[in-house]
Amino acid sequence: MKTALGYVLSALVASVHASSLHALRHSPLHDERQIPPQLDYNLYPRAACDNTNKSRHCWGNYSIDTNYYDETPDTGVTREYWLSVEEGACAPDGYARQCQTVNGTVPGPTIIADWGDSLVIHVTNNLKSNGTAIHWHGLRQSGSNIYDGVPGITQCAIAIGQSMTYRFKVTQYGSSWYHSHFSLQYANGVFGGIVFNGPATSNYDEDLGHLFLSDWSHVDVFTRWFAARNGQPPALESGLINGTNKYDCSNSTTDANCTGRGVKLTTVVEKGKKYRLRLVNAAVDGVFQFSIDKHKLKVIAADLVPIKPYSTSSLKLTEGQRYDIIFHANQAVDNYWIRAGWLNACQPNAHPDSITSVLRYNASSTEDPTTTSDVTLSSDCLDEPLASLVPHLKIDVTNIQKSFDTYLNISKQVDYIHWTINTSSLVIDWANPTLKQVFNGESLFPTDYNVLAINKTTTDKEWIVLVIQDQSNLGLEHPIHLHGHDFWILDQSTGTFDASTSPQNFKTKNPARRDVAALPGNGYLAIAFMPDNPGAWLCHCHIAWHASEGLSLEFLEREADIKADVSDSDRTQFDGICQSWSDSLGTQAFPQEDSGI
Prior knowledge:
Blueprint: H1 9-24, E1 58-59, E2 62-63, E3 78-90, E4 97-102, E5 108-114, E6 118-125, E7 134-137, E8 163-169, E9 174-180, E10 191-197, E11 206-216, H2 221-228, E12 238-241, E13 266-268, E14 274-281, E15 288-292, E16 297-302, E17 305-312, E18 315-317, E19 322-328, E20 335-339, E21 356-360, E22 400-412, E23 417-421, H3 434-439, E24 451-454, E25 463-470, E26 478-482, E27 487-494, E28 513-514, E29 516-519, E30 523-529, E31 535-541, H4 544-548, E32 552-557, H5 559-562, H6 568-584
Parallel strand pairs: 3-6, 5-10, 11-14, 13-21, 22-25, 24-32
Antiparallel strand pairs: 1-2, 3-4, 6-8, 7-9, 9-10, 11-12, 14-19, 15-18, 15-20, 16-17, 16-19, 20-21, 22-23, 25-30, 26-29, 26-31, 27-28, 27-30, 31-32
């Protein structure tokens, strides 16, 4: 979707998507170098096995069995990207409006790298009236907390006309996404894909890249905030798959913005081949139950965690979650609907059944599919069953050092509804991030920052447990996302957590792990993680309205060790970004009207 020409958006999206796929099919990205015969082969060991369509478990001298928390390849390769956060006219589903985008497209360009590469990503704020910052969702950022990309936590907001360079090592592999963490900005289009090539738990022939599933507003999402903050989250008009769809304008003949020029995304396959798809729920507020008519889905990863493959007819994704799937093109040569599967029971959408795209076995076909779905949509908004999400790399939870029992509630304050954790609702200051306070040696943090301090007490592996109990009595599920860590899901239940008895039901033997999990309405979520990554790490609900309403806390992890990971050049840039933001205050047109995240 090009911002300058709203009526040709969808074709351009398809072109961008196809070019990304071509690059993906040639992984690993780094060149295979031939060893000259005169050199000592012992200095240049040959790869143990190649990653091919018959050996996806392989990755050179590493494999799907490598403990990626402790060991990472070092390719010696640095990949560099330039991203421009900008705005302009758009019509991704054929309805014209103003968008905020990355490099003029929704989604923005895909960041592609190999496991073990280094990334240098330059982000420039070319918006007219917003600050910005880019978060790299799901990345552990080990040793690089300063580049996690959350304004008010790990950096100041990037001022208009200014640039920031993010630098970090690729220590994980799989599928994720990046998005603005500046208020509701990503809901206007500021997001894109991340692909880190590496091994997989099942074989496939071709990688089709991302399928972003998202709801879509026909007006600027910031204008919807005023209704949402009073407890009435609006039903958005439409939804997109990879930034495109065809909105029905037949009932909007007097609306000049309804151009009717949207198109469905089309994916062409060859009968007999197996294809990998990387699904992302990028919704503001909504749960999907994804399916492809007449095709089974083999699930091979949950977020950035490879799992033991399992087969299903459909797959539920809450906000912020990702799944890697494989489907076999083994049906009759025909056209089939790909269904995002919006669950209206979780949050209404004006056109839930129209969020679809087309799977074609014949590239020359132009007909719409006539297939029907045999999937029964769920009446709840919870995750996939934990019993299905078995990590391939087995890690048990042992030696629990500390447990935080927290209580989620909701209150109406003077300005708007606030979600609270332990009676406090998060509100940060884009000019005074937590890391700035750490660097300045401040010992007390503002109450509204919801800071929980954690430290490592022994040299052995130890675990922190966070229990969130929903006491709001509203029955709403909340997708909880933790920055800087995968977490192990010990329990995910309805009812009340009892500190004396509930831990007896904790699953500690290789439990499901990921970085986003649903907190059941009126229930509790118990997660565990290791305090092995010094930094200020946000933990928040990924429903955008709820994050804006303060449903978040932050862990200040091993504060005494944070500065050791920050180089002089890191600190110089950090201070410069904060100075330019402070200098812009009074001239920036966008006031902070929510939590800031």
